[in-house]
């Protein structure tokens, strides 16, 4: 990373020492050098609206160029694992790692499951899936589904995924479906390399 690497070290908060960067690297699919680059990116996002080193929903939407929709807020919530309504650096790194091309199907499934499981009870119910489909389609002008069509998609999905027929999709059932059809994890595909290229 050359001169850019030395510059980024100066920008790191004291909290993020060499050893803490190495610890984060072990928990993710990033090298310590990549995490330094991501920290620069994090700071530019977190200080765009207010200088607090935490990413708000508004900053999250602006940084990713996403519309202010309920679906975007669900993705934000999957990053915000402590439920503070703000994304801290550790949460940012772990979320990006789950969305990176190097992430395993299980890691992507865990993140995506968190988006769909709105009440956080460990199971996706029909109403939650319906809400997520409605949220995701609300910003898509090229796809228009009626409520009856959305209900049909939900019923079909449950028929395929809810293998024990208990009316909820568990993480194991979701993961099994993802292994058969990785396309259902499209909500967690992000070109993280673009961030590194921008910061070179």
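^ structure tokens above, recovered residues below v
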């Amino acid at each position: 990373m050359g001169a850019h690497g030395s510059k980024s070290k100066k920008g790191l908060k004291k909290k993020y020492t060499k050893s803490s960067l190495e610890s984060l690297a072990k928990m993710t699919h990033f090298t310590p050098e990549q995490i330094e680059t991501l920290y620069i990116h994090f700071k530019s996002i977190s200080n765009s609206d207010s200088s607090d080193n935490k990413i708000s929903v508004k900053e999250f939407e602006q940084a990713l160029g996403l519309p202010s929709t309920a679906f975007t807020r669900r993705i934000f919530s999957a990053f915000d694992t402590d439920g503070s309504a703000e994304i801290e650096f550790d949460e940012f790194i772990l979320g990006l790692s789950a969305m990176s091309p190097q992430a395993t199907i299980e890691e992507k499934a865990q993140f995506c499951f968190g988006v769909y499981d709105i009440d956080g009870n460990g199971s996706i119910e029909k109403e939650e899936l319906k809400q997520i489909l409605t949220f995701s389609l609300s910003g898509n002008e090229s796809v228009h589904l009626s409520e009856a069509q959305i209900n049909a998609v939900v019923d079909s999905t449950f028929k395929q995924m809810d293998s024990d027929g208990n009316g909820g999709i568990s993480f194991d059932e979701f993961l099994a479906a993802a292994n058969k059809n990785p396309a259902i994890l499209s909500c967690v595909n992000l070109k993280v390399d673009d961030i590194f290229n921008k910061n070179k």
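Confidence is low (pLDDT under 50) at residues 1-14.
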